[in-house]
Amino acid sequence: MPEERRNTRRVKATDPIPVLYPEFEATLRDLSEDGAFIEDKRPLKVGQTLRLRVPRDHGGIDILAMVRRVEPGRGMGVEFLEMNYSSREQLRQLVARLSAPA
Fold first, then answer.
1. Residue 98's closest CA among 20, 33, 23, 14?
2. How far apart are CA 5 and CA 19, in angstroms?
């Protein structure tokens, strides 16, 4: 079994959360305060950096991320590298909403 390397708990998106990055629009499958899995049949290469944008209706979050894992034909796991204070707070709130009992 692979060693778990996450520092924060990852939560499943109950409804699709769109994510935009240059020339692409995809969906977040799950996310944490440190990273996410992006469902995209055309994942980028491991090590590639990208600027992500979660639209305003889901918090208006801007993030610099790096691809850490690829599942061909399914998507990619990304680590969040950098975001401003406002985006960090919006991300925390989004993760908290997804973590809350229904």
1. 14
2. 23
Say whether pTM exceeds 0.70. yes
Residue 24: per-residue pLDDT? 81
- The pLDDT assigned to 39 comes to 93
Which letter, b or e, does each residue of 56-76 get, where b requires 16 or more Cβ atoms within 10 Å of its Cβ?
eebbebebebbbeebeeeebb
CA nearest 38: which of 67, 62, 61, 9? Answer: 67
Pick among 2.130.10.10, 2.40.10.220, 3.30.70.2190, 1.20.1250.20: CATH of 11-96: 2.40.10.220
- Among residues 36, 27, 49, which one has the least CA distance to residue 9? 36
Distance CA 81, CA 96 (A): 20
pLDDT tens figures, 31-85: 999 999 999 999 999 999 999 998 877 668 999 999 999 999 999 999 999 999 9
